[in-house]
Amino acid sequence: MATKKSSATEKLLPRVYDDAVSPAAKEVGKTLAKAVRTSLRPVNGVIWTFDQAFDWVSERVSAFLAHEGVKSRRVTPPPIEIEGRVLAGLQIAGPADDVLRNMFAALIGNAMNSDASDRVHPAFVEMLRQITPVEARLLAVLCHAGHPSIVEGDASAKWQIETTYPGGTRSWASVGKSPQIHNEWPKLWERMGLPVSDRTEVSDALSNLARLGIVTQRRINSLDTFDSDELHDPWFYSVTDWIRKLNDFIKAGPGQPMPSPQNDLGIETFEVGDGGFMRAKRRSDTKFESMDFKVSNTVDLLIVDMTYWGKRLGTSCQASAFVHDGAVVLPAWAR
User: Model-level pTM?
Assistant: First the structure.
């Protein structure tokens, strides 16, 4: 029986092989190969050759060093691990984006300036090679800001009312709502010179910058998280302004008339306590025992700050020079 199966298999194999190399199969293979080559071919037009990258960076670095006022005697050969990686990075990034390729040029230019070469670490080239054009613009904006930035979030407050009735029954209600904190996302998109898009793209960009150790991200869910020094920093203007409005909101009280059924409960005055706590005074003929009011905060902020290495990278590639009047633009030497 085994011999018969073996014999049948041996007869089948040549047929399978013949089918695989038949004209029809060969044609399918050619069609697939052609589709792959056609899909890859556009890359030939957007990837620079080594000579193209070398010629471009030579001209651009000369313009950069001249703009920085660097004398010829201060120009030194860059370390090979920096020059080689920059040229490799430019072969891909060069044709794709003006901002990113000029950051490469500034980085190697600083590496060739004997007065600035000590600030350029070879790892910075790898960082630039792993970021996208969107992330390069975000890097420029954050470096130019020079302080932590609130890039996402919301903060609001409302009065929470707890009413206690005879027998211990309680009910809860909300009254009023404070102004919300300003959201920085739209401004970031405007500064980056990009069309308004899905915030996921910027969120992914921030995550990649954090992965590379360029920025830190901190999620804030309570105002108690901030220390007094942060609350006095100028960069914190949007939060301090909201806190001021929150205090005004607390001082104003929940307002009158009260929403039903509270407006029928005989409230005359309020006793104000600390932290936005209030207790209602009532007439003797009302049917509830007490009514307590307290301000409830909802805080959810994402704060991004540059790390030590991120700041050094930004200095090495002149990132802040790519921002002018709140928008990402090319510096004079890069035009």
Answer: 0.73
